# Entry
Amino acid sequence: MQFSFNGEVISLEIEKSGTNFSSSNMQLEYSPKTMWAYVNGRRLKVTVANHKDEWWVHIAGQILKLEYVEQGANTADETGGLIAPMPGKILEVLVVEGQEVTTGQPLMIMEAMKMEHKIVSPLDGEVSALYYQANDQVEGGVTLMEIQETD
Amino acid sequence: MIRRLLVANRGEIACRILRACREANIETVAIFAPDDANSLFTEMADITVALDGETIGDTYLDIEQILSIARHFKVDAIHPGYGFLSERSEFAEAVMNAGIIWVGPSVEAIDLMGDKMTARKTMKNAGVPVIPGEEIEGGIDAIVMASKRVGFPLLLKASAGGGGKGMRAVHSEDQIQSAAQSAQREALKAFGDDRIYVERLLAGSRHIEIQILADQHGSTIHLGERECSVQRRHQKVFEESPSIAVNDTLREAMGEAAINAAKAVDYVGAGTVEFLLSANGEFFFLEMNTRIQVEHPVTEMVTGVDLVREQIRIAQGQRMSIKGCQMRGHAIEVRLYAEDPKNNFLPATGKLLCFQPPEGPGIRLDTGFREGDEVTPNYDPMLSKLIVWAPSREEALARMRCALEDFVVLGCITNITFLRALCLHADVIAGRTTTDMVEAIWPDGWDEEVPSDMIELAYLATYASHSMGANRQLSSGTISEIPTPFENLSGRFP
# Structure
């Protein structure tokens, strides 16, 4: 079974015996929602919540979000697509298609929750596609534009 | 006397006011927008009324609609909370004209303090020190000219401002044009008023504010300070009382300045006078908030005064129930926001799959959310306030660290791990708290290193839950058969 954390796929050898699950240096007694784990002799409370493919885990103040990965699926980020970080409204588009941009350059200004947010370029490249214009309402997670990386 | 009160607000502050009314044996009316139909605060009122409309402007900001509900249900008083209409004098005026008690100061006081440029002038005249800067009449060119005279680094602030909106720090002359445009645009959006003024940016200073109470019998007192220096995006996230930087002498001086500020506008009710305390110990008036504040609980914890209860007492013409300021121990508040601290504190949304607040001595949670609630982008992303009290600052910090560690919030990204990192940071522990500290400590944004064994354990727990079918139960949307108490009993006694 594969899950990803921060975009990295994790897959470990797990041994199962009844409701007891263990890997090389830790073990966990499963129960719904809240369970106990032992790591190097330390007892830790673990809380798990699930929504669709998202798995949220709380361990001693640490919160991790894992994502279920279908076997054989490609999780690598293939395109330079820029994703809307949240639902909101596009206030201004600061670039045009075909424009060269540099890392950190502001591309769009979005408004959400009455605050302005700058969308900046994550890489050096060329704007290869623009999907939205000023005054458009966008959902969180949609691709706003594509940037082709320049070598 | 107030027998029935309408709360013109939502979320945690609505809950706070509704509770205070219930304790005072006052009947309550809560109003809610359609998307708040199942929100926690609607469960706490005696009467709930659905507002008609989609946007905030058509619901929580619709003065006519709120007043017609107030008249229809014959309420004696309206409490505006913070935000929304709380500092809109036309609302206060309309409420009073309708013969309803306004839980707040006079229209004149709101106007004089609400417009930040006017407040600066009023305070200068009252002999309260203000930050070097300039009030500006005119557009972009006037802002640029004034900025050059004030000198960099500086802060552009919206005259109608609040909550960090329309505020920009400008560090050099070449940024001024775009910063001014952006600040004006944001101010226009948020307040319908794009006037901007300029103040010198005093690096390394602290944000210290004084809580004020004034009744209609001429008594005005202060209830000590709150330090709210720790901010991100010009919004407070960590507040405490007392401040490590304020001794008895300074407290008396600032308290007196705050009382003078309040008296200069004939202030009545609960209010807060905000000051900047510079690195060399000088303090300057920032602004006065003519309402109950988000961080009022820290003052309540150290003074033992129920500020909302006092507001109600004062509004119905009674004398306030306290004589002066007596502080005991130390209180800290952190604000739990649905936002991503690893991504420039951008607001986040999601469903609170799990929401288990900490408990124990000296722990208080003021929340507008509970497990199962959906966090939407429609409102301010603050979910709850976690407040602790302990005999000393050191013990209060330790209590807060443990409380944050126990606080389980899953399903929506929050700043909870950032708040815990703050409480563990050497500068916070040592009390070296300044308004620019978050940017100074984490100039490229905050991030945390998740230990590899935590990732491994998270994987193990997820693997176990997935293979035991926990996802099928939860994601199908149906609740699995709930065993009857008798089944539980027979399980306990095999």
Observations:
- Chain B touches chain A through 57 residues (CB under 8 Å).
- The longest strand of chain B covers residues 220-232.
